Amino acid sequence: MQVDDIRIFIPCKNYEQSQRFYKALGFKIEDASNDLCVCTFGECTFFLQRYYNKTFAENLMLQLCVLNIDEAYELISNLNGFNIRFEGIKQEPWGSVIYLWGPSGELWHVTELN
Asked: Could you tell me which of 8, 23, 44, 18 has the C-alpha nearest to residue 102?
């Protein structure tokens, strides 16, 4: 078996708000069906689904690797109108990270690796 890609399905408490949030982060949004869309940034892709399970969403963690953590922080800190929260840049042994909780409670580790 050869693996080409792994894609996650992210649940949405509010499907339309989540689409706007990810678009504001720079993702291209394309409908796959009435209840599913594909979010793409360069070669990176994931799905948003019109489905919500609180326990799953609030325990979901993802890592978004970026080339410039300061640029990512600038973008994140200027997002308005979304039910999100984030922490400042933290230094870890493996790189710099911003913890960003999306509109459905999903936790993103926005990371610039060493």
From this structure: 18
Does the pTM surpass 0.90? The reply is yes
Residues 77-98: what's their mean pLDDT? 95
For residue range 25-63, what is the model confidence (pLDDT) as tens digits?
A: 999 999 999 999 999 999 999 999 999 999 999 999 999
Q: Indicate the helix (H) or strand (E) that contains 24.
A: helix 15-25
CB within 8 Å of 71: residues ≥ 6 apart: none
Q: Give all domains of the chain, ordered by start, each with its CATH number.
A: 9-113 (3.10.180.10)
CA distance 62 to 51: 18
Amino acid in the structure at residue 36: L
Q: Which residues have C-beta within 8 Å of that of residue 8, sequence separation ≥ 6?
A: 46, 47, 60, 62
Cβ atoms of 53 and 59 within 8 Å: the answer is no
Token look-up 């973008």 returns: 75
103/47 Cα distance (integer angstroms): 15
